[in-house]
Design a protein that fits this description.
With about 1100 residues, this protein is an alpha+beta fold. It has 31 helices and 26 strands. A 10-stranded mixed β-sheet has the order 17-18-19-20-26-21-25-22-24-23, with helices on both faces. Strands 9, 10, 11, 13 and 14 form a 5-stranded antiparallel β-sheet that branches. This is phosphatidylinositol-3,4-bisphosphate 4-phosphatase. GO terms for molecular function: phosphatidylinositol-3,4-bisphosphate 4-phosphatase activity. It catalyses: 1D-myo-inositol 3,4-bisphosphate + H2O = 1D-myo-inositol 3-phosphate + phosphate. Pathway: Signal transduction; phosphatidylinositol signaling pathway.
Length: about 1100
């Protein structure tokens, strides 16, 4: 075909085309149609093709000038060139692409691209769904083919590796690459590509060293046959990449116009990496069609606890915002899943405090090895019972002396999120059913009181039904063991803590011992479903008590202290009466067997429990309540009307109890001249007298038995004579009537005391219906959320300190400090949440812990008690239980001392400080400072100075307490130094650390990541130039962004730019990690 020039029209549909000999000035117009690899040239739309050009073994030359619209087709066969000219530059570019892809090579490239896209479409599981993997043990049980497992240490990650790229090719020569690697997994049985994780973005280099690596948890189903796909992207706009593309469906490749473009990818088998001699693979990165090479990628297997001998001098600060992380495991020696609660907070004056804080030694830096006699394998069953769905992130950071430190960040849900509330609701149901039954058994009452009782029982039955329905709904719950922030308003989940997780940082350096730092993150305990229109519990309880004191209802006012005492008496009755009856039966059984030793032991137990029983009624409240109940019986005519009186003294000492006329009676309790108050004293005293009779009879029997034994030894009678002598005086027959009398006296006391205390509770309920029951419900909801977090924190702390004798001594001698850090504002609804949280945490003071030896494979804690007093029994495996001091093994109850310090940091707190009121926050901080001082005083009095060698001098703690006191008194706006000081004191006192905000997702994430980086800087010499970079890395690629994803299905902190302007400097997330998101 001669050289011609043609004018192009519309693509594919045909257009005007002109051809001429090359030397001609005017082109010949022709219509064209592109079909496959054939270009048809026609004189007009309807005519047949006059020429056909086969587009094989040819290439397109497109002129790059903005004004030139010409294209040249050059042929390898040597045929003359074909010159084409389009009507416009866009038409020219479209024709160039179409003609270039028309040959068979272009079609092959298209097929390769389509195959790659089909593979991408098969990504049916997103990154967060990949976390909910099927454990390998379950995979095997499903009957799938058996694959080669990777050898590992118990409770350690299965596989960890780091990544680096070299000689990456940019689209243009002057383009500076900003790259990251996306890691996907292809399971050998499913052949489904699952996005797993990604590295940080390394900017401005074609040889990026990715210091964020990849780690697979112990139960992740990964085998030697598993394939790992590594895809490298070039990020054009960092903020666009995070905010836009992170929420794209997993099966779709991000478009280049939303912030990133595809560079290349490669795939390798896990077995090839594990079995390689150098434990390193160098792979070639290729384009999607598999043709062009765009660089290489190095995959290095990371060994447990290995520290690189080389220095970190090659890590420069030239690359702006380069993140320095690498997933690295711990030492390859047996170890338990050790945990300890520590944290450190930074402030707006972070730089100013660096030198001072760097001088302080971390209180909980301890070698992370398992206690003697306890292996990691021994710990696994218990930890698997408490923790679930772990997420691991590991980093490598340079230190100030140009060495590397290795950090493993871990986050795990707790199964206690649902277990504890369900146990607690079951106890509430039993307690309320027992109360309702006691109200019904109160006996005959006058019409006024009887109508009041019926009304109370009706309301109580409705509330009981609500608890039962809630428990039934929770029993149906399956799936995740945590409650997401989006579920705050779900009625059926209102007892469940929000977003409860363990956040742990494990630091490994070459020169220092391993250190573990833990904090429990949970949404502020609050009754979101109840709303905050009228405030929270702190305000509502105060208002309710004032209204009840001044109520005009026809009922008797009892103070909250007296109603609590009534509940305690009823609880003691229900607990002690069956015990006393059981010990009495054991005494008779010992008497029937004529066993002196058994008889003595049974009598001792009976005496101890009966004395406790008698002591429980040594209270003026029982006496006054009996009088009030007498006046409420039908047919009783009062000589003095019931009139409310404010009584300051509610009881008297022992000498006044014998003289009723000298006693100032309970508020509003009438005095009735016909009532014999001494009758109760006689009934109550009869129990003691009956017990004394039993004791005297046992002593007499044992004395006779002893004297007869001596006489028998002297006379040495025959066995027949000895048998006759024994049957002559039967112990059982002589003790039986005395024991029956004791039971009868005790039964009469129980009947009267139960009815009197139930009458007190009737007054409490009647004076405040229905508000009283609604407040009880709200308090139960808040307490349930708080208790679940506390039990989780205690169990984790216990495991951390099993090998620390000082900690164990502190545990049973003083108890543990539990420090809560609150980030709630004092404006609008969050003020109500803070009020709920303050009461819920204060109520934790009535919780006691007891450690017992597990008798089965079920290691979940057991909860018993009532609303005013709970005992949490923590079960330990036998080997771990043996490590405990004798006092704890004997069942000594362990106390907790909860304190709360709150500092609002968001834009709502700015409004509260400028236009609202911050008194609530100030009062809470001041009150809890006093509680903290009380614990410190108790600690210094009972603990020897040398019991905890890792603690600093007591003067340091005194200085920190004084500094905390000054900061609280200063009333400085957003004074986050209060939180740092409180957390530091908690660490030095070996306490349990909590961090809370509204949902433990956004502000909490900023706080715990700041805490972790502060610890690395102050305790482990993190290079000062990398503090902000490490902080950004943990917030962008660490566990906390995974927490956000779990909660809202999106990798974005729920902040906007205006909000962040109000945040303290170091509480702001990096660019591109925040935006609009549901929370």
């Amino acid at each position: 075909m001669p050289g011609t020039t043609a004018h192009l029209g519309a693509l594919l549909e045909g257009g005007s085309l002109a051809s001429k000999e090359y030397h001609r000035k005017e082109p010949r117009e022709r219509w064209c149609r592109l079909k496959g690899n054939l270009l048809f040239l026609m004189k007009n739309k309807t005519s047949e093709a006059s020429e056909v050009v086969i587009l094989e073994r040819c290439w397109i030359v497109e002129f790059r000038s903005k004004t030139d619209v010409s294209i040249v087709l050059k042929f390898q066969s040597g045929e003359p060139d074909l010159y084409l000219e389009a009507a416009s530059k866009p038409d020219c570019e479209s024709w160039a692409v179409a003609l270039g892809e028309a040959n068979s090579e272009g079609l092959r490239n298209k097929i390769q691209q389509l195959r790659r896209l089909i593979m991408e479409i098969k990504e049916e599981r997103s990154a967060d769904e990949a976390r909910q993997f099927v454990p390998s043990s379950q995979v095997d049980s499903l009957g799938e083919p058996q694959f080669t497992s990777i050898q590992r240490i118990a409770n350690e990650p299965k596989l960890e590796f780091s990544l680096a790229c070299k000689d990456l090719v940019a689209a243009t020569r002057d383009r500076k690459l900003n790259t990251f690697i996306q890691v996907s997994v292809v399971h050998p049985a499913e052949h489904i590509l699952t996005r797993y994780s990604s590295t940080e973005i390394v900017e401005g280099t074609r040889d990026p060293l990715f210091l964020t690596g990849v780690t697979f948890p112990p139960e992740y189903p990964i085998y030697e046959e598993t394939k790992i796909k590594l895809t490298v992207y070039d990020v054009k706009d960092k903020s666009q990449d995070t905010v836009c593309t992170s929420v794209l469906p997993d099966h779709k490749e991000p478009r280049t116009d939303v912030g990133r473009s595809f560079l290349g990818c490669t795939t390798f088998r896990v077995g090839d990496l594990v079995k390689s001699k150098e434990q390193q693979l160098t792979l070639t990165l290729r384009t999607s069609d598999g043709g062009k090479t765009v660089g290489t990628i190095e995959v290095n297997l990371v060994k447990m606890g290995e520290i690189e001998d080389g220095e970190a001098d090659h890590v420069t600060t030239d690359a702006q915002d380069q993140k320095f992380l690498c997933f690295l495991p711990l030492k390859s020696r047996p170890r338990g899943f050790l945990l300890s609660a520590t944290c450190a907070h930074n402030t707006e004056n972070l730089d100013r405090m660096t030198d001072r804080r760097a001088k302080e030694e971390c209180a909980l830096v301890r070698e992370c090895t398992a206690p003697e006699g306890v292996s990691g394998k021994d710990n696994l069953p218990l930890l698997n019972a408490v923790l679930k769905n772990p997420i691991c992130k590991l980093y490598r950071f340079p230190t100030s002396d140009n060495k590397w430190m290795q950090i493993r960040e871990q986050m795990a849900e707790s199964t206690l999120s649902f277990h504890v509330p369900k146990e607690l609701i079951s106890l509430h149901i039993k307690e309320d059913m027992r109360r309702n039954q006691e109200l019904k058994e109160l006996g005959e009452l006058a019409p006024h009181w009887d109508n009041m009782r019926k009304n109370v029982i009706a309301h109580c039955d409705q509330m009981l039904s609500l608890y039962q329905d809630t428990l039934a709904e929770l029993g149906k719950h399956t799936g995740s063991s945590f409650k997401s922030s989006c579920s705050k308003g779900e009625k059926t989940l209102e007892f469940i803590p929000i977003n409860l997780h363990l956040q742990r940082m494990h630091v490994h350096t070459a020169r220092l011992k391993d250190a573990v730092y833990d904090v429990i993150t949970v949404g502020a305990p609050a009754a979101h479903c109840q709303g905050f229109k009228n405030g929270g519990l702190r305000k509502l309880l105060s208002k309710f008590e004032a209204e009840r004191r001044n109520t005009g209802y026809q009922c008797i006012y009892y103070s909250p202290e007296n109603t609590a005492k009534a509940k305690e008496v009823l609880s003691n009755i229900n607990h002690l009466q069956p015990l006393i009856s059981s010990h009495a039966d054991l005494l008779l059984n010992s008497a029937s067997q004529r066993s002196p030793d058994s008889l003595k032991n049974s009598l001792k137990m009976l005496s101890e429990k009966t004395e406790l029983f008698v002591h429980a009624f040594k209270d003026q409240l029982v006496r006054s309540a009996l009088l009030a109940l007498y006046t409420a019986r039908p047919g009783c005519v009062l000589k003095k009307p019931v009139t409310p009186r404010n009584s300051v003294e509610e009881g008297g000492d022992s000498q006044h109890q014998d003289h009723p006329s000298q006693i100032k009676r309970q508020d509003s309790i009438p005095h009735h001249s016909e009532y014999d108050e001494e009758e109760w004293d006689r009934v109550w005293a009869n129990v003691g007298k009956s017990l004394n009779c039993v004791i005297a009879m046992v002593d007499r029997l044992l004395e006779k038995d002893n004297s007869s034994s001596i006489k028998e030894g002297e006379d040495d009678p025959s066995p027949a004579d000895r048998k006759i002598s024994h049957t002559g005086g039967d112990w059982y027959e002589q003790l039986y009537p005395l024991v029956i009398t004791l039971k009868d006296c005790m039964g009469e006391v129980v009947t009267r005391a139960k009815q009197s205390m139930t009458f007190v509770l009737l007054q409490e309920l009647a004076c405040g219906l229905p508000q009283c029951l609604m407040l009880t419900l709200r308090r139960d909801i808040v307490f349930s959320q708080a208790l679940a977090g506390l039990v989780c924190g205690f169990i984790i702390k216990l495991h951390a300190g099993l090998h620390d004798q000082g900690f164990l001594q502190q545990l049973h001698t003083v108890g543990l400090l539990v420090q809560y850090e609150g980030l709630l504002s004092t404006y609008s609804e969050e003020a109500g949440m803070l009020e709920d949280m303050a009461v819920g945490i204060s109520d934790l003071q009535k919780v006691m812990f007891k450690i017992i030896e597990a008798k089965s494979e079920d290691f979940l804690p057991i909860i018993s008690g009532r609303r005013e007093h709970y005992v949490i029994e923590v079960q330990l495996p036998a080997k771990m239980f043996e490590l405990l001091p004798q006092e704890i093994k004997e069942g000594k109850l362990l106390r907790m001392y909860p304190v709360l310090f709150n500092v609002g940091i968001n834009e709502q707190q700015t409004l509260a400080e400028r236009f609202g009121d911050t008194t609530l926050q100030e009062n809470i901080n001041q009150e809890n400072l006093e509680l903290l001082k009380e614990y410190y005083k108790l600690f210094t009095e009972k603990m020897p100075p040398d019991c905890l060698p890792h603690f600093q001098e007591q003067n340091d703690l005194k200085g920190l307490l004084e500094n905390l006191h000054q900061n609280i008194q200063a009333k400085k706006r957003k004074n986050v130094e209060i939180m740092w000081l409180a957390a530091t004191i908690c660490r030095k006192l070996n306490g349990i650390r909590f961090t809370c905000c509204k949902s433990a997702k956004d502000r909490t994430s900023m706080s715990v990541t700041l805490e972790q980086c502060s610890i690395l800087r102050d305790e482990h010499q993190l290079h000062k130039d990398f503090f902000i970079r490490a902080l950004d890395c943990m917030r962008r690629e660490g566990c906390r962004i995974e927490n956000v994803l779990k909660n809202v299905k999106c990798r974005k902190y729920a902040f906007n730019m205006i909000q962040l302007m109000a945040f303290p400097k170091y509480y702001r997330p990096p660019e591109g990690t925040y935006g609009k998101a549901d929370t």
